[in-house]
Write a structure and sequence with these properties.
6-stranded antiparallel beta sheet, 4-stranded antiparallel beta sheet, 17 helices, alpha+beta, 31 strands, single chain
């Protein structure tokens, strides 16, 4: 008690001495009572800084700092607190958007990391996520994340979705994966709607500019300038997810989607894939049916049947609306619908739609205000024709013009080419002629099993993927490669050290030595043991094969190798076309070669 009494007495004395008067006396005296009395007084708190999170200012975003251990929720100005040097983590529920060093202003671009711009996919994903959750729906200058979003994304029942979203933001998910997950989020939070990648990107740049926040010169303005708008039509279809290599989103009430010229656009509802085609001002079920499709083509009718059966308007108005809750239910992981979704995707062009859709419609009917009704194929076809005719849209496939870089003549050995009657050639050497519109005319040069036809037709898309007709379907043929992709030129010097090699893939022709088949075969045997099945591991393929089983082996052996080379490995280069690849290593001090050929 004496220590406490003394402490209080001194405080009282100092208070009496230091107060009032003319300011003289003891104003310069400092007494450190904590040190003199041995009292363990707490340290004065350090002052924290205030930063702002801005796409537009974002309210309702959780944050946590380390090592400063400050936490809270951003207010109407997007404000958060941090200590100098702190790392700030931003979250919605348990979904981590990203981390950045504390600063006066943090934006989605900041969370994108070093070198990020307004066009960086991870940045656009963050902007799209925040704007899609905005309870103001973009109608004010502030993005408000509703408390329902925090609850839904912290609920253990939705841990699968949280896991997906965390992976999306951490790994920079492809647009299609992110849109799928965002669609699931929006379905769980009333009053929210997906904001497309392009719309979110544009709004973010406009907001940052309005707040005098620098935006990289490589910004959304570039994408905005060159992006085109298309329309998904049967009647205009709302609620279909679309994705291109650079853009993604969900079609609106006009069926609107965004694409860049020449890009392929893929369409899906939940995890049901509808099809892909080159971006155009109007895309229809006929467009997704492929070249040669008409309003009578089965694939086009199947897509129309699927869309119309899920229409919450039941054809009663001039648009098809697919609720986001229905799209969210159509996943392979859904315990009720998963098998049906898998069946649709496993069938060619949704050919199982007639048997699967009644089950799907029955299962999702409760998600519609007035239930759902399965539409027959004939009804869907008639409605599609009426809708497209009313919209002055062609009832036949409208092929886009392809760059002339794709046109020309290509030849090579391919593993599975379907002929015009639907039979399949398991292998053979084909020559393809491709015009400027992407039409393919293929002629069998040699080989081929499983069919008697020596010709086939098809098309090549803007991504150089070749499809060959098989009855009413188009089978994937392979990816087109330019002519003369084999080594061409002269190599000379000391190549006998075993480190310089040439690689020959596919059928080859050109200047070769007159080495006999027997000699080359002996070379293989001696280089790889008793059989070529002991071949090397580069390139990695389906495994090693004997010459007799190698599609290209006979042609390679007949041609021989350039003088001074011997075969050191033989492997299948591709599971798709089963082409053989040979790696040859120089065995003489000086060797030259000239190879020409086609893939």
């Amino acid at each position: 008690m004496q220590r406490i009494f003394l402490f209080l007495t001194i405080v009282g004395f100092l208070g009496a001495c230091g107060g009032g008067g003319d300011g003289g006396g003891n104003s310069g005296i400092t007494v450190d009572l904590c040190s003199s009395e041995g009292i363990n007084c707490p340290a004065a708190p350090s002052a924290s800084n205030t930063g702002r999170f801005i796409d537009a200012p974002v309210q309702g975003l959780s944050y946590q700092t380390t090592p400063g251990n400050l936490s809270g929720t951003t207010d109407g100005n997007g404000s958060f607190r941090y200590n100098p040097g702190d790392t700030v983590t931003f979250k919605v529920g348990q979904v981590v958007l990203g981390r950045a060093t504390g600063a006066a202003t943090i934006t989605p671009i900041t969370l994108g990391g070093a070198g990020a711009t307004a066009m960086t996919p991870s940045v656009v994903n963050i902007a799209s996520f925040l704007q899609s959750l905005d309870q103001n729906a973009g109608k004010s200058s502030t993005i408000i994340i509703p408390s329902a979003a925090q609850t839904v994304l912290a609920d253990t029942a939705n841990s699968w979705l949280v896991t997906n979203l965390n992976a999306d933001f951490a790994q920079g998910a492809t647009s299609a994966h992110f849109v799928r997950d965002l669609n699931n989020v929006v379905a769980l939070i009333p009053g929210t709607n997906i904001v497309s990648a392009l719309a979110a990107q544009t709004a973010m740049v406009a907001s940052l500019t309005a707040n005098n926040i620098p935006v990289s010169s490589t910004s959304a303005n570039t994408a905005t300038t060159i992006a085109s708008t298309g329309q998904l039509m049967d009647a205009p279809v709302q609620g279909v997810t679309y994705s291109t290599p650079t853009l993604s989103g969900v079609t609106d009430s006009q069926g609107t989607f965004q694409y860049h010229t020449g890009e392929p656009v893929s369409f899906s509802v939940g995890q049901v894939f509808l099809g892909s085609t080159t971006g155009a001002s109007v895309v229809t079920p006929i467009s997704l049916g492929g070249p040669g499709a008409t309003s009578a083509t089965a694939s086009a009718i199947n897509i129309a049947t699927f869309l119309q059966s899920l229409d919450q308007n039941k054809g009663g108005v001039s648009s098809i609306v697919i609720p986001s809750s229905v799209a969210s239910a159509l996943t392979t992981s859904n315990p009720v619908l998963g098998a049906h979704v898998s069946a649709l995707n496993a069938s060619n062009n949704l050919s199982s739609v007639s048997t699967v859709m009644p089950h799907i419609v029955s299962s999702v009917s409760s998600l519609y205000p007035n239930g759902a009704t399965s539409v027959s194929a004939s009804s869907a076809q008639n409605a599609m024709i009426a809708n497209l005719t009313a919209g002055n849209v062609s009832l036949t496939y409208a092929r886009p013009t392809f760059s002339s870089v794709n046109s020309g003549t290509y030849s090579g050995t391919y593993a599975s080419v379907a002929n015009s009657t639907g039979s399949s050639h398991d292998s053979g050497t084909w020559t393809m002629t491709i015009n400027a519109y992407g039409d393919v005319s293929a002629t069998l040069v040699s080989g081929g099993t499983g069919g008697s036809s020596t010709s086939a037709t098809g098309y090549v898309d803007a991504s150089s993927n070749v499809y060959i007709s098989s009855g009413s379907l188009y089978k994937y043929f392979g990816t087109l490669r330019p002519n003369s992709t084999f080594p061409s030129g002269t190599i000379s010097g000391s190549l006998n050290d075993g480190t310089d090699t040439i690689t020959i893939e596919g059928d080859i022709s050109g200047n070769f030595s007159t080495t006999s088949v027997a000699t080359v075969a002996t070379g293989i045997s001696s280089a790889n043991g008793t059989n070529v099945t002991a071949c090397g591991t580069t390139p990695v393929g389906t495994g090693c094969v004997t010459v007799a089983n190698c599609t290209d082996g006979a042609n390679l052996m007949q041609g021989g190798l350039p003088s001074g080379y011997t075969i050191t490995s033989l492997a299948i280069a591709s599971k798709v076309n089963a082409t053989c690849m040979v790696t040859a290593t120089a065995t003489s001090a000086t060797a030259t070669f000239t190879l020409t050929g086609t893939p």
